[in-house]
């Protein structure tokens, strides 16, 4: 994540707080991201120096004007004007991090050797919500190389309860 992306995201987030529209702005960023994802050539067009700035801003306004709040459109136009549309995804990720922190929402990545059952996921999520003292959004992944156990990454902290990790620890002790 670039420092410039953080600055742009922070400015937009502060504006959303002033206007009490942080969720509305987030949804607008998701909409813009969907447009960019569905039309990859669109971001190329917005960053192309061979197309006049006036035309690029007009295209952006035509595509998203009326669908996103005026301040979010202005944010996107500013990225375009400054030749920084390439940092949009990073800015969006930083905005989401600020949004989640303001709502006391934690994000967890849970990696297991096998698919967890609904009950196991529910118990694990309940425990993580107690630890974080807030809501937890969980993303699940399977990694067969773990042999058994799970690895949990919660807000940048890693809890490694995998069998592979424990075996590596034992191997390290034996090699000392």
Which SSEs are present, and which pair or pack?
Blueprint: H1 3-18, H2 22-38, H3 40-47, H4 53-64, H5 70-81, H6 88-102, E1 105-112, H7 118-132, E2 135-142, E3 150-154, E4 157-160, H8 163-174
Parallel strand pairs: 1-2
Antiparallel strand pairs: 1-3, 3-4
Helix pairs in contact: 1-2, 1-6, 2-3, 2-6, 4-5
Describe this structure in words.
The chain is an alpha+beta fold and 176 residues long. It has 2 domains: 3-100, Peroxidase, domain 1, CATH 1.10.520.20; 105-174, no CATH class. Helix content is 61%, strand content 14%. It is built from 8 helices and 4 strands. It has a 4-stranded mixed β-sheet. Strand 1, helix 7 and strand 2 (135-142) form a beta-alpha-beta unit. The protein is elongated, with a radius of gyration of 21 Å. The chain starts with a helix and ends with a helix. The model has no long low-confidence stretch (mean pLDDT 89).
Structure characteristics:
four-stranded mixed β-sheet
Secondary-structure element string: HHHHHHEHEEEH
Strand pairing plus helix content: what structural class? alpha+beta
CATH superfamily of the largest domain: N-terminal domain of the delta subunit of the F1F0-ATP synthase
The CATH topology of the largest domain turns out to be Peroxidase, domain 1
Text of the CATH class of the largest domain: Mainly Alpha
Number of DSSP-assigned strands: 4
Total number of helices: 8
The percent range for strand residues is 5-15%
**Roughly how many Å apart are the termini?**
39 Å
What would you say about this model in short?
By secondary structure, this protein is α+β, with helices and mostly antiparallel strands. The protein has helices at residues 3-18, 22-38, 40-47, 53-64, 70-81, 88-102, 118-132, 163-174; strands at 105-112, 135-142, 150-154, 157-160.
């Amino acid at each position: 994540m670039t420092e410039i992306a953080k600055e742009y995201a922070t400015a937009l987030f502060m504006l959303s707080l002033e206007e009490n529209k942080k969720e509305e702005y987030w949804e607008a960023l998701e909409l813009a991201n969907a447009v960019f994802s569905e039309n990859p050539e669109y971001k190329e067009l917005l960053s192309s120096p061979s197309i006049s700035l006036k035309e690029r801003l007009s295209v952006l306004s035509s595509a998203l004007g009326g669908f996103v709040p005026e301040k979010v459109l202005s944010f996107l136009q500013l990225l375009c004007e400054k030749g920084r549309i390439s940092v949009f995804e990073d800015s969006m990720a930083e905005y989401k991090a600020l949004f989640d922190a303001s709502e006391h929402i934690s994000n967890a990545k849970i990696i297991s050797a096998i698919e967890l059952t609904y009950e196991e996921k529910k118990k694990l999520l309940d425990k993580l919500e107690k630890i974080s003292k807030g809501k937890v959004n969980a993303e699940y992944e399977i990694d067969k190389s773990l042999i058994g156990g799970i690895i949990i990454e919660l807000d940048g902290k890693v809890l490694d309860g995998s069998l592979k990790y424990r075996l590596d620890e034992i191997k390290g002790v034996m090699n000392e």
